[in-house]
Amino acid sequence: MCEEKRAVEEAAILIPSLEPDEKLPPYIRSLSENGFGHIIVVDDGSSESYQQIFREIEKIGRTVVLHHDVNHGKGVALKTGYQYILDNLPDVKGVITADSDGQHTVPDCIRLAEKLEEDRHAVYLGSRDFNQPDIPPKSRSGNKITSVVFKLLYGVWLPDTQTGLRAFRREDLPFMLNVTGERYEYEMKVLIACATSKIPLIPVDIETIYENGNEGTHFHPIRDSYRIYKVIFGSFIRFMGVSLFCFAIDQILALILRTWVLPPAGLARGSMMNLQVSGWCARLVSSVVNFFLNKNLVFRSKGKTGRTALKYAVLCVCIITVSNAGVWLLGQIGMVDWLAKILMDAMLYFVSYRIQQQWVFKEEA
Questions:
Q1: Is the separation of the CB atoms in 127 and 159 below 8 Å?
Q2: What does the alpha-carbon distance between residue 241 and residue 247 come to, in Å, rounded to a whole number?
Q3: Residue 314 pLDDT exceeds 60
Q4: What pLDDT sits at residue 217?
Q5: In what order do the strands lie in the sheet with 123-127?
Q6: Which of 70, 233, 286, 310 could form an S-S bond across to 246 if both were Cys, CB 3.0 to 4.6 Å?
Q7: 237, 226, 140, 136: which is closest to 188 by C-alpha?
Q8: Distance from C-alpha of 114 to C-alpha of 37, rounded to nearest angstrom
């Protein structure tokens, strides 16, 4: 019990809130009575009719209410709280974010506070069980799809990507403040930033609560889902666009070389030498263009060009080698070569994206 008491006293609870209902003050009071040393509530531009609720909250011990004059979004509200903790609460050793709609119980907040005692450079995520029968179908299917996509693009399996119950060390506050985003998409950007920076994302089982079909949420299913998926797919869509552009360069340049440039130089069109020279020259040019576009447009890496170019070259050689070997192996079991080529290249396309994201263009610490 002494360890549990110390854990909650050294943690700050941060709750962004927009037009909360009457259940928020009792929830804040329960957090205070259970020993949390600091509770910060950010009123994100609620109207005057809701200010009585915030005035009631301000009277609760260990609680501070910060106000936005207008609604800025959950991401901005969280950053307002982070900056306040960084500037005014030097004794806080960990931060726990929770939602104001009643989904996160006090025992679950305590559980995450105890996880912070491990003092790991990690982000703990309160993870709900979406297989329970009372989960709204749109929440169950939406979260499972997002989990699969996140694993495919960022290499981390998260059973609950939408959770607002999170915990991390005080030392990670500058990192959180540096992540861009203003509204619900900010939380997804944090997950992506952690995944690409190799900061462990550790799920922690929590109680699954959906009161009245989750009617208390201010999450807009179309607008905010669009923002979230735009964040998830952002770099991959740019990656695909660059790939198509460079494919066009490769094909057009190869055609120009083998049709109009090489024949006058003595390499007859259709000859093996003509095809080899035109193919390799076109691939070299398109690869250089692909490298610089991926570096500056897709992954926006500021690393040294020479080192990243070497990594990129090594990756290209490995991808080509694995592709050729895979096509040969699939051919040995009876698969036609064109289908084997499509399957191998499709699989390696995602592999190449992940390796470029997490190794070739990864920012050095």
A1: yes
A2: 10
A3: yes
A4: 56
A5: 63-68, 38-44, 11-17, 94-97, 166-169, 123-127, 201-205
A6: 286
A7: 226
A8: 14
Tokens at 285, concatenated: 């040019």
Q: Which residues contact 104 (CB under 8 A, 6 or more apart)?
A: 98, 126, 164, 165, 206, 209
Q: What is the pLDDT of residues 317-338, one digit of tens each?
A: 999 899 989 989 998 998 888 8
Q: Would the CA dihedral through 247, 248, 254, 257 be positive or negative?
A: negative
Angle CA 193–183–51, to nearest 5: 135
Q: Name the token pair of 34.
A: 């259970």
- Three-state SS annotation for 170-209: HHHHHHHHHCCCCCCHHHHHHHHHHHHCCCCEEEEECCCC
Render pLDDT for 72-89 as a digit per residue (tens, 0 to 9). 999 999 999 999 999 999
CA atoms within 13 A on the CB side of 38: 22
3 state DSSP class of 124: strand
Distance CA 243, CA 348 (A): 13
| Torsions phi, psi for 330 (to 5 deg) | -65, -30
> Hey, how many other C-beta atoms are within 10 angstroms of the C-beta on 182?
15
Type of residue found at 114: E
Nearest to 202 by CA among 147, 139, 160: 160
Contact 228, 189 (CB under 8 A): no
Distance of CA 121 to the CA centre of its chain: 17
Q: Take residue 70 and report the two structure tokens written for it.
A: 């207008």
pLDDT at 49 over 60: yes
